[in-house]
């Protein structure tokens, strides 16, 4: 991928993130709980359920300190992967927190549609 295509893709992901944040602020939908479907999806990809639960708790707590929590299905996984490093820096959270949020987002994407 050349530099122009990379820049366009990054701009498109940033725009999607802004739209999702704006939409989340207007019409919040609850984050899926770490229920049986989410636990099953976590086990299917060998992610610890505790890590997934911590990821949800971080979205509800630390992330919501700056903006409304974004529902995992409001963004594609690539958009989450693009946004998470910036958000972790802004929130002064480490890589373990990022891995937990990513785990939660990933298994919600794998669980039955909510």
Describe, in plain words, how this protein is organized in 3D.
The protein is built from five helices and no strands. The chain is mostly helical and 114 residues long. It has one domain. α1 packs across α4. The longest helix is centred in the N-terminal third of the chain and has 24 residues. It is globular, with a radius of gyration of 14 Å.
pLDDT below 50 for ≥5 consecutive residues: which ranges? none
User: Average pLDDT value?
Assistant: 87
Give the number of helices. Answer: 5
Overall tally of domains: 1
Shape: globular
Rg of Cα set: 14 Å
SSE string: HHHHH
Helix content: 55-70%
Cα distance, first to last residue? 34 Å
Largest sheet: none
Q: What is the strand content?
A: under 5%
Computed structural class: mainly alpha
Strand tally is 0
Chain-wise SSE layout:
Layout: H1 3-26, H2 36-44, H3 49-60, H4 77-91, H5 95-110
Helix pairs in contact: 1-4, 2-5, 3-5, 4-5
How do you describe this structure in short?
With 114 residues, this protein is mainly α. It has one domain.
Considering the chains and any ligands shown, give keywords for the structure:
114 residues; mainly alpha; globular
């Amino acid at each position: 991928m050349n530099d122009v295509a990379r820049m366009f893709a990054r701009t498109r992901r940033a725009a999607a993130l802004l739209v999702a944040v704006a939409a989340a602020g207007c019409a919040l939908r609850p984050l899926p709980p770490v229920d049986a479907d989410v636990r099953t999806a976590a086990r299917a990809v060998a992610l610890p359920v505790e890590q997934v639960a911590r990821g949800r708790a971080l979205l509800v707590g630390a992330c919501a300190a700056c903006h409304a929590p974004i529902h995992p299905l409001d963004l594609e996984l690539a958009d989450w992967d693009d946004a998470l490093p910036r958000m972790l820096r802004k929130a002064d959270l480490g890589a373990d927190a990022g891995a937990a949020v990513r785990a939660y987002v990933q298994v919600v994407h794998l669980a039955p549609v909510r």
